[in-house]
Amino acid sequence: MAVARPPMSRRKQLEALALYPLDWLEERSGLVGAVRYFLFRKVPGDINWFQTLGSATLTAFLVQAITGVILAMYYKPDPNSAYESIKHITNDVTLGWLVRGMHRWGASLFIILMFFHMARVFLFGAYKYPRELNWIIGVLLLVLGMLEGFTGYLLPWDQTAYWATVVGINLNGTGPIIGPFLASVLRGGAEIGPDTLARFYSIHMLIIPGAIFALIGLHLYLVIRLGVTSPPWSKTAAGAAWIEDEEEDTGARKGLVRPAPREGAAK
Amino acid sequence: MQEPSGHKPESSGQTVWPIGVAIGISCVLAGLIISWWVVAIGGGIALVFGFLWLSDLAGHPIARRPAGPPAPAAPGPPAAARHYEAPATTRTGFLSLATLGLGGVIGALVSIPPVFLALIPPFLKQNKKPVDIGPLSQFPVGQWVITNFLLVPSEGPVSKRTAYIRNNGFLGSQPSFTIISNRCAHLGCPVQPLGLVQPTQAKTISTSAGESVTTTPVIAVSGFSCPCHGGAYDTEGNRTAGPPVRGLDRYEFSIKNGHLILGRNYSVASVTGSGANAKINKYDLTGPGQHVDGWEQIFYPIQPPH
User: Fold this and answer.
1) How far apart (Å, rounded) are the C-alpha atoms in residues B300 and B294?
2) A159 neighbourhood in chain B, CB within 8 Å
3) pLDDT at B74 over 80
4) pLDDT, tens only, B27-66
5) At B260, is the secondary structure helix, strand, or coil?
6) Residues of A with CB under 8 A from a CB of B
7) Sign of dihedral through CA atoms B256, B261, B264, B265?
8) How far is the C-alpha of A161 from the C-alpha of A149, rounded, in Å?
9) Cα pseudo-dihedral B290, B294, B296, B299, rounded to 10
10) How far is CA A39 from each of CA A46, A224, B126, B196, rounded to the nearest angstrom?
11) A210 vs A203: CA distance, rounded Å
12) B159 touches chain A (CB under 8 A)
């Protein structure tokens, strides 16, 4: 026996219908709430465009990941066909020139944006307590990004690529004690050969991107957990209120670094 | 802390079994280089001591610890109190430890082979063999010849190498050749001869092994230089300017059935004299940019196999 419900307006009915998939997902996973929390979390009121550099870097990385995955469908990591496959991608495959260009120029953009983002964090003092760990993760990401540049540079397998990699590997070889062994591991042997290219390809598209994805996850987790920093010239001192409520918090926390306000914080 | 009845508290002090395990593992690693029976012996040692160590940790020492004095009765806290005992005695603790332990063992079992595959093969099976670069008549006395050949023909063009060869005539009854590798001693770019290359006189021959070797004479060679960072060398390969840390590498050679055979490379600190009378300060092959002499050589004590 059905319980009598108040009649829904047409508009309400459509709304319920449209939201049904989201409700279904939310009830079973809580994912909708998580995304809402991420997108609509509180940030200081006086942040500015400089604080978008991190998102820009993330976007650049995602562009690299997507274009790289597609390029991998056409690229052949073998000394006898690598250069030919690059020419094929650039000249024959529909829009191949565009996707390869995005990957090639996007690589530089990714590195440049990482440096701009790092400069913003440094100049705003956003690396200070309690965000030191996120700075350290960022440094690891910078190193991994540059390793991507080093390993990706070999893949076109032209003269520039080959000799730049010879020089790069031999530079590693000059490191004290372990340098010569590091160079052998990078080459996959005593001499550059077929294994070197496949090895660099694997490092470039599997090992390092995997590590970067994992570290970006940690990086974002800490951004969400610790909140966004106010600019150093901020007058409103966003987030300072709830800190002042806690008597034991003194020193660094009251300085330049001001965590975001939290739910229920005094205005 | 309640000890189960019938058990004496563990005697204090360090156990020596881990040292045995370490020795066993060292044996295994050394065996990988020396021979398989050393690996087996090392593995046996590691297993036996590992078992003893584990049984010790579990609180059931099978063998007496050598030279372990009995624990003093009174001083210090009771030895057993220093252990974290709850997991050893509760079901939850046992299951936690078992999960961690089994997980660790499984993790190690599946991750060691791939890590081995990534890191060890670069140091094994270097397939460099002597290269036949053709009859001696290709190399007139006193003439520099650019020689291109494949180091490992099956690998194709990626193994193309270049040597600059000069026939110095005879030293006594022995033929003498100066064979300089084109690998710059700075960071490995290809050095070029400073002279007039004669491309119209280039010859490509097929040697007995079916390899193709190209020889191109160069006249009026005054030395070698590197296009990458400006390293400069004289005709004996001595560094004269720029960033290189030593002279150019050379090839050992032999002569078989009237053919010149290139052997292993070696590194050179410097050369005094020239041609057949050159005195070469010869060292084992070392990577570019690495010092073979002077105090800086302490940075490069061991070279990987090549």
Assistant:
1) 11
2) none
3) no
4) 888 888 878 888 889 999 999 988 888 888 877 655 555 5
5) strand
6) 79-80, 163, 166-167, 169-171, 173-174, 176-177, 179-181, 183-185, 187-194
7) positive
8) 11
9) 70
10) 17, 10, 55, 69
11) 10
12) yes
Query: What is chain B's mean pLDDT, rounded?
Result: 85
Residue type, A178: I
| B128 inside 8 A of chain A by CB | yes
Residues near B258 by beta carbon (within 8 Å), at least 6 away in sequence: B135, B136
Cα distance from A182 to chain B (closest Cα, Å)?
A: 9
Contact B156, A79 (CB under 8 A): yes
Neighbours of A55 (CB within 10 A): 12
Q: Is the confidence at residue B274, as pLDDT, over 70?
A: yes
Q: Which of B157, B228, B287 sits opposite A180 (nearest CB)?
A: B287
List Cα–Cα distances, B110 to A70, B113, B114, in angstroms.
30, 7, 8
| Cα dist from A36 to A169, A238, B41, B111, whole Å | 46, 22, 61, 38
What is the Cα B140 distance to its own chain's centre? Answer: 37
- Using a CB-CB cut-off of 8 Å, the residues of chain A touching B267 are none
Question: How many domains does chain A contain in total?
Answer: 1
Residue B60: C-alpha distances to residues A204, B7, B98, B175 (Å): 50, 9, 17, 74
Which residue would you say has higher pLDDT here, B245 or B3?
A: B245
In the three-class reduction of DSSP (H, G, I as helix; E, B as strand; rest coil), residue A142 is classed as: helix
Nearest residue of chain B to residue A79 (CA atoms):
B158
CA distance A52 to A42: 15
Q: For chain B, what's the residue count? A: 306
Q: Write down all domains in chain B, each with its CATH number in brackets.
A: 17-123 (no CATH), 131-299 (2.102.10.10)
Domain residue limits at A162: 49-225
- Give the strand pairing for B174-181 and B160-171: antiparallel
**For B82-107, how does the pLDDT look when each residue is reduced to its tens digit (9 = 90+)?**
555 554 568 888 899 999 999 999 99
Task: Report how many helices (DSSP H) and strands (DSSP E) chain A contains, helices first.
Answer: 11, 0
Cis preceding linkage at A130, omega within 30:
yes
Rounded to whole angstroms, what are the CA distances from B101 to A245, B86, B104, B232? Answer: 46, 17, 5, 59
Considering CB atoms only, which of A79, A163, A170 is closest to B156? A79
Q: Say if A104 falls within a structural domain.
A: yes
Residue B30 amino acid letter = A
Q: Which residue has the tokens 């490379």?
A: B265
Q: Show residues of chain A in contact with B159, CB under 8 Å.
A: 191, 193
Dihedral sign of CA atoms B26, B31, B32, B36 in order = negative
Q: Is B170 on the interface with A (CB under 8 A)?
A: no
Question: Can you tell me whether residue B148 is helix, strand or coil?
Answer: strand
Task: Tell me, yes or no, whether A13 lies in a domain.
Answer: no
Q: What is the CATH number of the domain that holds A173?
A: 1.20.810.10
Select from A186, A183, A190 the least CA-distant residue to A198. A186
Structural domain includes residue A1: no
* Residue A244 domain-assigned (yes or no): no
Which residue in B231, B261, B232, B237 sits closest to B249, CA to CA? B237
* Interchain contact, B188 vs A167, CB within 8 Å: yes
- Alpha carbons within 13 angstroms on the beta-carbon side of residue B17 total 18
